[in-house]
Every structure is written in C-alpha cells, then in structure tokens.
Design a protein that fits this description.
By secondary structure, this protein is α+β, with helices and mostly antiparallel strands. It is 20% helix and 19% strand. It has a two-stranded antiparallel ribbon with strand order 1-2. The protein starts with a helix and ends in a 5-residue tail after the last strand.
C-alpha cells in the first residue's frame, strides 16, 4: 500500500513514473558498480530490528545497471538463485 501511495503521489506531482510494476517487498543489502567487501554493511545490519514479517523465499538478485548513458534506461534484474525458507505454507 505504501508503494502504491508513493507512486500515486509522484504521478499527482507530475513525476514521470514510467511503467507501473507491482511492488515486491525486498531488502537491498548492497549495490555497487564494482566488487565491494559488504561485510561492514552486514555487521551494521546485524543489530537491526523491525516489525515481524514472514519470508517464504530468499532470492539473490543481480542488478545489471545501465552503462550506455541513454536517458531513461532502466536496470535489468537477474535472479541468480532462489531458496525456499519453509516459513509460510
């Protein structure tokens, strides 16, 4: 609902939103154009707590960021692996 409302507010404000895609809850741990040691980020996240939510699958997704410099070019996402977590059923 938050993603839908944010998109609606952007459209109302005149922001070009591109194509509508259904939001999927996710956590981006790190993102970089080159190889980076992400361990310091994981250490910072180690103590993070939030509202409880159920996860039934873990998907590792690679973001292939645009390199052409063409305005409006979007990243491409590639699922590298999927693992069932046996939570919800």
């Amino acid at each position: 609902m938050l993603a839908d409302r944010a998109e609606a507010a952007g459209r109302k404000a005149g922001v070009e939103m591109g194509e509508h895609r259904r939001y999927k809850a996710h956590l981006t741990v790190a993102r970089s154009r080159e190889a980076v040691d992400v361990r310091p980020y994981l250490e910072v996240l180690d103590g993070f707590t939030s509202r409880t939510w159920t996860v039934d699958e873990l998907a590792l997704v690679r973001s292939n960021l645009p390199t052409s410099g063409v305005p409006g070019e979007q990243p491409r996402y590639e699922v590298v692996g999927r693992w069932a977590l046996g939570g919800a059923g």
